[in-house]
Amino acid sequence: MEAPAAPHNAGDLELTVTSPDQMRELGRRLAKLLRAGDLVMLSGELGAGKTTLTRGLGEGMGVRGAVTSPTFVIARVHPSLGDGPPLVHVDAYRLSGGLDEMEDLDLDVSLPESVIVVEWGEGKVEELTEERLQVVIHRAVGDTTDEVRHVTVAGLGERWAAVDLSVLSA
Asked: 49-54 long-range CB contacts below 8 Å, 24 or more apart?
């Protein structure tokens, strides 16, 4: 049995997702809780479903452009097709310099009017804001055919204190 990657709080939500379609649907439901100024940190192994979740977020937020992994461009902005905030999708996997390197992306400038989703952001973006949503996706290591994922969603800070994350499990 593996130790959890992040400490669990009483308000943390634990979900089991059994397919990529369910992961996208989780993203669509999560989009309804997000607003401009929100930072979402996604963590999990390669192939865990971080980009699939973000694709669902983009669909739920009604943003322009297909959400794909921004591994090689580092960050991609998806403007809203309506009156909602843009989605800034960041893949920090190739960034090694911590916040200094992240500052080159001007995320602190984008944060107030955008929803920023950062994959692989641990140790790199926490200083942007103390209020963030952390999503940890665990998958069975070594078994590549298993679609089951265990997802932990934790809201940190005052922004998330009153948000009922249980709506995500509907």
From this structure: 49/17, 49/20, 49/23, 49/137, 49/139, 49/149, 50/119, 50/137, 51/119, 52/20, 52/23, 52/24, 52/27, 53/23, 53/24, 53/26, 53/27, 53/135, 53/137, 54/27, 54/87, 54/89, 54/117, 54/119
CA 166/CA 170 separation, integer angstroms: 7
Q: What is the torsional sign of CA 21, 156, 87, 44?
A: negative
> What average pLDDT does this structure show over 7-19?
77
Stated as kind and residue range, the H or E segment containing 27 is: helix 20-31
Taking the C-alpha atoms of residue 113 and residue 102, their distance in angstroms, rounded to an integer, is: 18
pLDDT of amino acid 31: 97
Q: Is it the case that residue 3 has pLDDT exceeding 80?
A: no
The answer to whether 86 and 115 are in contact (CB under 8 A) is yes
